[in-house]
């Protein structure tokens, strides 16, 4: 079986490499010629654990190839996946579908035989139908079916998530589309992964509803954490006590500085807009968007308050810049709000991130300094803020940290450290939602 994957971004690269690992012949196509050239030389443009090896092995086995020529790349493909970006449109927050539609039309024109065009990008409800109209208009002579196959992988654990998902969702309204997708995902049947076949609109909505629900769960616990601080409760015990109820579940109840990343901020906003346009507003999701945005700004104010009301002339070490660990992705990361605010308030920010510095540098104020290690960032600092819970930060010995710093303020926005141990080391330590 041969397939093509349009878009060598996160989803396209990971899904392409994983399908190849399933034994399918995959061509990953991207218009960015320098990206394709890099991939052909074995250089992976994103940091994702295990991806470099998976790509190398499947390229060597002849199952995975990269192309910048879409027309040649889709020739002979039984299925073509659209994994192009759907950024938030400037101004109105709707998903920008221009890349999806342009790619769909170009694919239709390039196809030489019947194929299934599968949307993997997260797209608003109704996009699948529009894609079908576009391809039918472009190629009335050819039998092109459309399907929706939203992707639920998480950055940092993308390969495991793709290979052992909780479920696969396929929206399709033709037997041929269902049959092609069933064949592609055959290895998952062997591990008894539920594969849910639905209508196209339903599949599209599942993705948004799932992401918005998870984002709501995070926002809920973040606000409960703030309440814990006021009433002297411990948010981790609250989360555990809630999460042990099987109807609630324990995951995604970890408080923090607000969610970021390529999906939650964009998808919550898009769902809120879609729902309003459809005359069925989901006000809880609108609130989640607003509360989460405000939270990131509040985090900077927390730092300033922890430093006695001013950071002017002070050096603040910031550990972790990416929106979560095990990625170099900075999209909607809390650091993009917190660091500029601290710089504006007169602080010298010394930042360290294990993988994200290169991506972060052009996105942060020019005055931001970058350190080579966590201890280097902490050296001589008045305060230390932990923004992303990279594992290497967990291993920092409080006493060494204390000896490196000039001041004694630590603000742990991911609740990585043990409050008692930090206080024993002489820190004025605060975290999220813990007494
Ligand atoms: C998410 C979804 O999990 C995935 O299914 C979808 O396909 C894409 O979006 P991702 O953005 O890679 O994946 O990361 P995820 O681990 O879900 O974290 C998202 C954000 O929520 C991060 O900023 C993270 O720090 C935050 N988060 C997550 C919390 O603050 N608390 C939690 O308990 C979980």
UniProtKB/TrEMBL annotation:
Transmembrane segments: none
Catalyzed chemical reaction(s): UDP-alpha-D-glucose + 2 NAD(+) + H2O = UDP-alpha-D-glucuronate + 2 NADH + 3 H(+)
Domain UDP-glucose/GDP-mannose dehydrogenase C-terminal stretches: 317-419
Keyword flag ATP-binding: no
Record-level GO BP terms: polysaccharide biosynthetic process
PANTHER family: UDP-GLUCOSE 6-DEHYDROGENASE TUAD (PTHR43750)
Protein name as it appears in the record: UDP-glucose 6-dehydrogenase
